[in-house]
Amino acid sequence: MRLAVFKALFQHEFRKDEDLEQILEEILDNSYDEKAKKDARRYIRNIKEHLQTIDDLISRYLERWTIDRLSAVDRNILRLGTYELLYEKDIPIEVTINEAIEIAKRYGTENSGKFVNGILDRIAKENAPKEKFEL
């Protein structure tokens, strides 16, 4: 499910005139069960709604970089991970970060995994809801 959300966010970078939710629907094929599709749709809707807050938060943790200078892969993995850390209350921080690292290793550069880990770890420590530390 996270992979479908990441792919939709990534494709939207190159198809800005198209609706993000429609791009997701193109990705959600029969390999996804109904729960995964429902979760992916919720993620996309909420990421769209909170995108400015998410981008502003990520930007606070970028040293000598702007969010626009990040690769499209790293930027959208960070968006997905930051969204999940802040707004998905029942997913442990470690799961979010580990899943983001795996996507980064698969689709990013050789340094993407470490980079994503560092940014999301700092975002989690300073911004994740307190109850997530008890999961």
From TrEMBL:
InterPro entries: NusB-like_sf, NusB_fam, NusB_RsmB_TIM44. The keyword RNA-binding applies. The keyword Protease does not apply. One of its GO terms (cellular component) is cytosol. GO terms for molecular function: RNA binding. Residues 2-125 form the NusB/RsmB/TIM44 domain. Pfam families: NusB. Keywords: RNA-binding, Transcription, Transcription antitermination, Transcription regulation. It comes from the Bacteria. GO terms for biological process: DNA-templated transcription termination; transcription antitermination. Signal peptide: none annotated. Belongs to the NusB family. HAMAP family: NusB (MF_00073). PANTHER family: ANTITERMINATION NUSB DOMAIN-CONTAINING PROTEIN (PTHR11078:SF3), N UTILIZATION SUBSTANCE PROTEIN B-RELATED (PTHR11078). NCBIfam families: nusB. Involved in transcription antitermination. Required for transcription of ribosomal RNA (rRNA) genes. Binds specifically to the boxA antiterminator sequence of the ribosomal RNA (rrn) operons. This is Transcription antitermination protein NusB. The gene is nusB.
